């Protein structure tokens, strides 16, 4: 990995993990993994396809009975050991993540703690897969509902949170008694393979958790063509999520989808503007704007518009753009040049429709996939960014007059993942929170993601919830027992 040395170099894996074994692709094929900040090659990962995927599915199938039959406490203990190993190696795992994904090192280490928190959360939830007994309508009968693990599951995960998007799924699946085959994003395989290394060290049995890298199409086809796989969990674009949902129909596989967003951030005239700016910065610029719950559109009420924009400009200009490995950097390279092109396309389109640049607006002088953190105002509602997720460091402000205008504009999107608003009027807070078409709402809060909360969207932002006590239900089947006399 260039000049970077891990304290524990064995966490850097360039092979996949199938059935407890580290292996290359059958044909020896590999793909390269680059550092987004320097565009240097970090290493390679196996280019696997259908044959390797089928072996991983078969291993998961073979491992399922014994894993299912462990007690919840035994599964919980192994998840807690995996959590502890993640935290013990937090620095190395953070380094790996910054090298392959680009995010500032402090954020990467933060994501490792966030990722580990899902293992700890679901270790606790494992012990609470409660069933029901229901008074029967017929004398002598008894109605009992038990919960059982769904079986072999699969996950396809994105590059923006290369560790936590895996543990948010695998933690729930393994806690429920399921086994899982994971295909991480090709841009960020090393965080996933390091998780597999630590799962092996934690004593999670062979076949229970496998990680395969390579052709997304071939791997996903093998996963959705197999009736052994009973559930697929996906985080990524709505376009791919829709394709996968259709593929899962063939064998009626359960599917969970965490997809794209288009989050509105509404600042009302009765907001605390300093808190609103704090929340705006946290939500907009986390991971250099590359999260599915990032603000995509700022809606600011006329009477506070200029004051809010002035404060936001100061906060944006205080950020430090650079290589995520360097101390003090708070905005990093985007995942690739294509992502930077998309941000510039959104800026240029909005300017062409009458918007004004308040700060930024250009590619960063560092070149490559760096973009200046940008603030634009006077954004027209027919701008491309109002219908498409920018996924980058662009704060776009749309003015509004009334509360009704704000709700109408906010809901004018096929997406509904996260929404945010700031107001000190409790009656308005209830009205607006209930009116927003979104799975999650931050009320006077810009950071809403944690393992205890049900994370998920409505409309074209997805299906199902992850985390919280709902997260494990995605991996459990309810069985109704009718006990006759
Ligand atoms: N909801 C969220 O958290 C996320 C949303 N997004 C949104 O998606 C946009 C595109 O980002 P991107 O990373 O390209 O997201 P994708 O949806 O393309 O990729 C996410 C995952 O899906 C895999 N994948 C890609 N194409 C297919 C396919 N045809 N069948 C099965 N799996 C597939 C990818 O594999 P591979 O890497 O090998 O191509 C990756 O593992 C972003 O700009 C953003 O708007 C992106 C990431 C996270
Ligand atoms: O997919 C994402 O962008 C993540 O879900 C964001 S979060 O969970 O870290 O908020």
TrEMBL record:
Residues 22-479 form the Aldehyde dehydrogenase domain. The keyword Oxidoreductase applies. Gene3D superfamilies: Aldehyde Dehydrogenase, Chain A, domain 1, Aldehyde Dehydrogenase, Chain A, domain 2. GO terms for biological process: gamma-aminobutyric acid catabolic process. One of its GO terms (cellular component) is cytosol. InterPro entries: Ald_DH/histidinol_DH (IPR016161), Ald_DH_C (IPR016163), Ald_DH_CS_CYS (IPR016160), Ald_DH_CS_GLU (IPR029510), Ald_DH_N (IPR016162), Aldehyde_DH_dom (IPR015590), Aldehyde_DH_Superfamily (IPR050740), Succ_semiAld_DH (IPR010102). PANTHER family: SUCCINATE-SEMIALDEHYDE DEHYDROGENASE, MITOCHONDRIAL. NCBIfam families: SSADH. This is NAD-dependent succinate-semialdehyde dehydrogenase. It comes from Alcanivorax profundi.
